[in-house]
Design a protein that fits this description.
With about 270 residues, the protein is of the alpha/beta class. The chain folds into two domains: about 180 residues, P-loop containing nucleotide triphosphate hydrolases (Rossmann fold, 3-Layer(aba) Sandwich), CATH 3.40.50.300; about 50 residues. Helix content is about 40%, strand content about 15%. The chain has a seven-stranded mixed β-sheet, with helices on both faces.
């Protein structure tokens, strides 16, 4: 085979190879998405004003204070937000980052899809030397077992070889308090249930700040609706708001926001 043939083969392979990932400037944007091999600037980062999150005041104060510490370069916790669907867990992470940025804090959100957890070490390498803070956001996380990804995340949180850098803290939302499933009978080691429980709790226990979100009652739901309606100047009928929640089978911040969106649509407005 001649040198010309080798050059042609090399050129063909190069054309077939995927292009290198485009890395967004880690200091230029308010929010990013981690693709597993590079940072991409989020197309739009317009979090809900944190004042609109109602019925979760204790959780809001804790997350906001922790985010301020992180942005200031002070000691801050990794955060686990767990509990009922639609109660503002995901919105709170984004809103806290937006609020602290509005106060002048240099912090950015980095969203990591659940199926990219194994690539966290690559993300940490990309941001470790960047002179700003990062809130690493993994939304709706749930492991079916304590496999490799769960163990990797636990190692990251406890300061193992792939620990996250000082300018980053992990923020996880989950419907499960202990993140991983509880089906002990499916675990080979279920012969000792205490060991199974301890192993599963070991991951959740690595978060310095763990906050529960619970289903709201009727009064709390109506308070949420009233807040949205007042801020956006939307007339509403409490009975209609309750009917809306009954038709959806739940009362939550998400349902209240959907109802506010419905009110705006009826009034010919945009939210």
């Amino acid at each position: 085979m001649t040198d010309t043939d080798l050059a042609r083969i090399a050129a063909a392979l190069e054309r077939l190879a995927p292009p290198p990932a485009i890395q967004a400037d880690a200091q230029a944007h308010a929010a990013y998405v981690w693709r597993g091999d590079g940072l991409a600037a989020a197309r739009a980062f317009d979090p809900m004003p944190i004042a609109l999150l109602t019925g979760v005041d204790l959780q809001k104060r804790a997350v906001l204070e922790n985010t301020r510490r992180l942005a200031a370069g002070n000691a801050a916790h990794d955060v686990l937000l767990w509990g009922a669907r639609g109660m503002g867990k995901s919105a709170m992470v984004k809103s806290a980052v937006g609020a602290v940025r509005g106060e002048g804090g240099d912090i950015a959100l980095v969203e990591v899809p659940e199926d990219r957890v194994a690539s966290l070490p690559g993300l940490f390498a990309a941001i470790a030397d960047v002179p700003r803070a990062f809130a690493i956001f993994i939304d709706d996380l749930g492991f079916d077992d304590n496999g490799g990804e769960a163990r990797l995340l636990r190692s990251v949180l406890e300061g193992g070889a792939e620990a996250r850098p000082a300018n980053a803290r992990i923020h996880v939302t989950s419907n499960r308090r202990h993140i991983v499933a509880r089906a002990m009978e499916e675990q080979q080691s279920a012969i000792n249930p205490r060991d199974v429980i301890d192993d599963r709790m070991a991951l959740a226990d690595r978060f310095g700040l763990s906050l529960g979100f619970h289903n709201c009652d009727q009064d709390a739901y109506l308070a949420m609706v009233e807040t949205y309606a007042r801020i956006h100047d939307l007339p509403y009928d409490p009975a209609d708001a309750l009917l809306w929640s009954q038709q959806r089978g739940s009362r939550s911040g998400r349902v209240a926001w959907h109802y506010a969106n419905e009110l705006a649509g009826r009034a010919g407005k945009r939210l």
